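Next comes this protein:
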Amino acid sequence: MSTLSTRGRGFSLVELLIAIAIIAILAGILTPTYLGLRARSSVTEAVQLVARDIERVRLDGRRQNVMTSVTITDGASAYDLVFGDGSTRSVSLPERTRFTVPTSPIELSFTPPYGVITPGPNGVHEFSVEWIGTGGANTRDVGVVGLMAKVVIR
């Protein structure tokens, strides 16, 4: 009887190796999914950050009745804001994201009193935010449309 009680305690080496193999298989399956999710969320965060800052700079110019601007450059991972009081600020995008701008640089200058911009080619200023890390290609297109600078995310 003493042999049965000692054998029933703990895991055998084979059971432990099977558990490790199952964990390794699950990690191999879930890693690409996690990296893709991370890429999508970083690009979405970057686009929302830019859209918020474009609106913030436009409203600042309207409030102070002065010209303000946002400058976006191709291949950059940051963009520049010029506020109504003349102060400037460079804002960095989330890690491993950058701009793709067909006609670089894009300068969105908001003129008083209504904070309107000069329309871009075909009435739209277009740029993209792309992921440059592992986890697959992920890009979001952004258009700044019309005189009132409506930001459209595609």
Q: What stands out?
A: The chain has a mean pLDDT of 89. The longest strand covers residues 124-131.
